# Entry
Amino acid sequence: MIDIKVFDELLRTKVIHDSVALFESVGNTKLSKYDIFISYSSNDKKYAILTKNLLEKMNVTADKKYTVYIDLEDTALDPTAVSEDTAKRLESAIDKSAAIIYIHSEKSNISKWCPWELGIAQGKKKPIAILELYSDEKLLKKQAYLEMYPTLTYSPPVGGKEKVFWVHSRREKAKYVALNSYITGKQPYIHN
# Structure
């Protein structure tokens, strides 16, 4: 879980300076493969864009940055239109993605697409991790079906300075793995 204040602070500081900068990275839907598909409620758009920007600044390997699909980039997609074309387009993007990050917040329970996207990803056996954002942990309405997926944290590695995303086992918080390892199939484990 991540206190939403951490992401709000990143939005106020150098990571994202203003609404123009917030949308500067939006625009690349020409890729044939993505590392991450971000599933989010339209109410959490700014956090989805921030997550995308943070991921794209991180290295998957020494010479490769994350590639991220977010529906805002997809000019052929109208996420407000519940249609077969929208469903096919989103399913295609999930097919092209190695893993799914679902952003769950106090506002995300009203999304029509997020549960459907998770179901498609689960059916395709994609690695799924939940990024839980909360302002008050007691207000975060847990969805029972989300309990089956590991969670994400955002912190530096031991002895490091640059923050990265970590995937944690839901049942055993001491088990974790770096996101770049998780998307290639490695499961959280206890580090000695």
